[in-house]
Amino acid sequence: MSGVEILVETTSPDVPMPAYAHPGDAGADLTTRVDVELAPGQRSTVPTGVKIALPDGYVALVHPRSGLAAKHGVTVVNAPGTVDAGYRGEIRVTLLNTDATETVRLSVGDRIAQLVIQQVERAAFVSVESLPDSVRGDGGFGSTGLGA
Known about the structure:
4-stranded antiparallel sheet, globular, mainly beta, Deoxyuridine 5'-Triphosphate Nucleotidohydrolase, Chain A
């Protein structure tokens, strides 16, 4: 099955194209272009060597890799990171080591994040005096099950 065409430029010939590891995967893997060492609690913005051109009406979302999170406590700080259709710079991923004791070392070519491409709607924001009622109303954090 083919999908939307995404134009890709790399910062050097050895940078791998984003790629899906398995049929049916939602996220295409992104790799690091530099060696990275993340001490406990440390974060670093890591270059991937990948630049993309999305069609208007699409967004690329940068998600953490579940294996890095489960095995090493590494996540993406602003998950999911947003790559807008008009952005043409290198995709960089801000990684955070959440482990309290272990340093994480990543080498050039290691998979560090997943890129998910989604179609998006542009909203028309309309100012009103008051919003219509709903079942939930203004119930916010914890309003649907944290106390009984």
